[in-house]
Amino acid sequence: MSLATFELPEPREGALRRLSDVLTRHTRLLTLLLLVPPLLWLGLVYLGSLFVFLGQSIFSIDEFSGTIVREPTTATLLELFRPANYDIVLRTVGIATAVTLLCALIAFPIAYYAARYAGPKVKAAFYLAVMMPLWSSYLVKVYGWKLLLAKEGAIGWFADRLGLGGALEAWLDLPLVGGPSLSVSYTGMVLTFTYLWLPFMILPVQAALERVPPHLIEAAGDLGASPGLVFRTVILPLAMPGVVAGAIFTFSLTLGDYIVPQIIGTSALVLGQAVYTLQGTAGNIPLAAAFSLVPILVMAVFLTVAKRTGAFDAL
Amino acid sequence: MHLQTSTATPAVRFQGVERHFGHVRAVDGVDLAIAPGEFFAMLGPSGSGKTTCLRLIAGFEQPDAGHIEIFGETVEGLPPYRRAVNTVFQDYALFPHLSVGDNVAYGLKVRGVGRAERDRLAREALAMVKLAGTETRRPSQLSGGQRQRVALARALVVRPKVLLLDEPLGALDLKLREEMQSELKGLQRALGLTFVFVTHDQGEALSMADRVAVFNEGRIVQVGPPEEVYERPATRFVARFVGSANVLEAAQAASLGGAARPSSLRPEKIALLAHGAPAPEGVAVIEARVIDVSYQGPVRRVTAVTEPGLTLAAAVPASAAGVIAGATVRLAVPAAALVPMEGEG
Q1: Quick one: DSSP state of residue A42?
Q2: B82 to chain A, minimum CA–CA distance in Å?
Q3: Pfam families this protein is in (chain A) (predicted)?
Q4: What is the ipTM, given to two decimal places?
Q5: What is the topology classification, in CATH, of domain B255-340?
Q6: Assigned superfamily of A105-287
Q7: Cβ pair B95:A218 closer than 8 A
Q8: What CATH number belongs to B12-240?
């Protein structure tokens, strides 16, 4: 067949093609059409109800009748600073911090390997391995960990076999992090959370590391920086936005969770449980709303600190 | 200006260096000696091994065979951060999270130079590349040409014994490139440093370098001063790659009055002769039919086929009239313009 004699058919005109013409000419209209539904959802349904709920925190509850007094007051918000409530806030933020640090520590080498050394096949296997735990039920995983962490559980058994039974006992004897067994200690709770949220840390860190141009790492070495210095002065700063993105996930997921602390850990409440009890059985919506403000404020502080320390300089 | 070592010790010496990537022999037995203070160009098409050679000097690659010395010191196994050479990368590789000043001061910082001292040196280096006052800016706020200068200042501020430049001007537009060419040359002369630069642009190599090494398929096919490489190409490859010369077989060269050897013939050495004009002494005149003319500003490049089926490219003054496709022209080829080639390939 000769290219010169080939007749190219005219594209068929139709309503869709004319619509394309209009949208191509008015790109703003297209953007608007695409954004209106999600913005309505996000703005009205999600943010609207969130603010209505948070707004409840300026009301208070009548101690005797248990009904909500709809008069603006700071009393409910100040209640957060009562020792019992303040402890809940501190405890939860402490756990979330530990989980985030542990996640970052474990995720970084895995993400680094996947981003910089793994070939295409290994990388596919890596994604599968990281995502697979997310496909199974959250409750199954938590109960699984309860068994692993139990006094007669697999972790204790391995520790005994490896001759580390004493070390485990010594750890459990420590104040705060210890307890009768791992499954009823903060250590167990932090381990479970770390396991649950690890994929949310690995993926953004890996994405950030993958975007670090190899030439930059070579340039740093070329200018005289040893591998350790290259890591500290180039790789880590450039991966920081990814670490912060991962930390947003691990931090806020831990702050809001109320199921893991019911199954694993001590009997002391965390934020999620407090909100759950207050809005449910206690019917104290204003205080529940006040507690709900805490994660938002904590995240705001966290992001501000991250920005101040230059974590987003590489963006 | 002083040189660190006696001129007897080459700044860079390669002996039988090989580097393989799987089955590909990227560098396949390279020997070279670069003199201290020399501006040395590695010229070749992409994939010819020139960049790998540069990376072998920098230490980003290690040779699979052979021996590399920098100022007499054996460097095999030495990581880049232990080598007194610095690189200006093709994409500049500036650190996006650092200011321009901190980029330039990076090499000083990792060597433990104090804040005040390294800021002073970085300012000086930036002034040297005509970027004074840009210290607090981000690399992303600079133009391509400015980034190039920052990369240069960053490499020079740590006083390398050899400066390596990987296609340093590749991303710049023509005017900027010409400006940078003379500036680089000036800097090199003023500092008395050894510059090794990689390029695929023969014009750049010829205009800047003291000596040019032409690479093809992992080997050096010719090394010499620009004039020699251009005027006396050793192989067909060099003749075609550097300045697109005509390559004539032995019999064809002999028929035009040259030696019976494969020879190169520069297009600009071929002149057009008016119909009926007598042939000067020592000049062969052949009739040829024009098959293509391309206008290139100062000259027109005329491709013509002679009766025996020899295709010749000639660069004639753009003002030459009547040269159109299909026309018959008389080409004047001076016998002295036929340069026999010694090498194979």
Answers
A1: I
A2: 7
A3: BPD_transp_1
A4: 0.85
A5: OB fold (Dihydrolipoamide Acetyltransferase, E2P) (2.40.50)
A6: MetI-like (1.10.3720.10)
A7: no
A8: 3.40.50.300
